[in-house]
Specification:
The chain is α/β, with parallel strands linked by helices. It has a single domain, classed as Response regulator (Rossmann fold, 3-Layer(aba) Sandwich), CATH 3.40.50. It contains 5 helices and 4 strands, in the order βαβαβααβα. The longest helix is centred in the last third of the chain and has 12 residues. It is globular. This is Protein tyrosine phosphatase. It comes from Hymenobacter armeniacus. InterPro entries: Ptyr_pPase_sf, UCP029416_PTP.
C-alpha cells in the first residue's frame, strides 16, 4: 500500500512519518509539504501515486482540496491532528504517529 504524508514544510512531521516505513514489507511511504518553501512540495503526481494520504492538520487537507480536488477523487484522506511542535525524529512524535496510524494501518 502506498502512503503519502503531508505537513507544511516536509522537514519534521511528515518526514518522520515517511521514515517509519523505510524497508517496511507492506507499506511504501513518501512525504511532502504544502508550503512554497517545503523540502519537497506536494504535486499532483504525489497524490496520483498514493493510495492513502495522511495530513497532519486540517489546514493541510483544506489546501489539498483547494488545489488538487480532481486528484483526490476516490482517495482516502486522513487528518491526524498532530501539531507542529515536534522536531524530526522526536520519540514523542514517533509514538504519537504510531498510535494514530494504528487505526488505519493494521500491519504497522
Amino acid at each position: 500500500m502506498r502512503l503519502l504524508f503531508i505537513c507544511s514544510q516536509n522537514k519534521w512531521r511528515s518526514l518522520t512519518a515517511e521514515r517509519l516505513f523505510d524497508a517496511h514489507s507492506h507499506y511504501e511511504a513518501r512525504s511532502a509539504g504544502t508550503e512554497p518553501g517545503a523540502r519537497v512540495r506536494v504535486t499532483a503526481g504525489h497524490l496520483g501515486w498514493a493510495e492513502t494520504i495522511f495530513v497532519m492538520e486540517r489546514r493541510h487537507a483544506d489546501r489539498l482540496r483547494e488545489k488538487f480536488a480532481e486528484e483526490l477523487r476516490g482517495k482516502t484522506l486522513v487528518v491526524l491532528r498532530i501539531p507542529d511542535k515536534y522536531p524530526f525524529g522526536d520519540p514523542a512524535l514517533i509514538a504519537l504517529l504510531r498510535t494514530k496510524l494504528a487505526t488505519h494501518l493494521p500491519l504497522l
